[in-house]
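Figure 2 data, in text form.
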Amino acid sequence: MTCCHGKLPHRAVRPDAYVIAEGLQIFDNLSGTADIDVSGRVQGDIVGASVDVLAGGQVEGSVDVSSAHIRGHLNGSLKAKTVEIHAGAECNADIEASDLETRKGATIKGKLSIISQ
C-alpha cells in the first residue's frame, strides 16, 4: 500500500479515525470523542479518545486522550492512560501516563510521570 506521494506509511490510517492529512495545517484546538490520526500539523490542544501522530505528523500543544501513539513530532504535553512512543518519534513534552512504552530510536525530552490507574 502506498500513500503520501508514493511513500510507504509507517502505519496505515485507521478507517474509523478522523485524519489531519499530510499537507493540512490546523491552527486551533480539537475536541471531541473521536480517534484522531495526524499526518499533517496541528498547532493547538487535542482532546479526544485517542491520537496517533504518524511519521511526518506534528502536534504543538497539549494532548489529553485515553490512548496515544507517537511516531512523528510532539511539542507540548501529553496526558493519556496508555502511551506508545515509536522509533523515530521526537517528543519534547511532559508526559503523564499509567502505561508508557518507548521503542529504541525514540527521542524524549521532558518530564515523565507514571501514575497508578
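Caption note: The CA atoms of residues 19 and 35 lie 9 Å apart.
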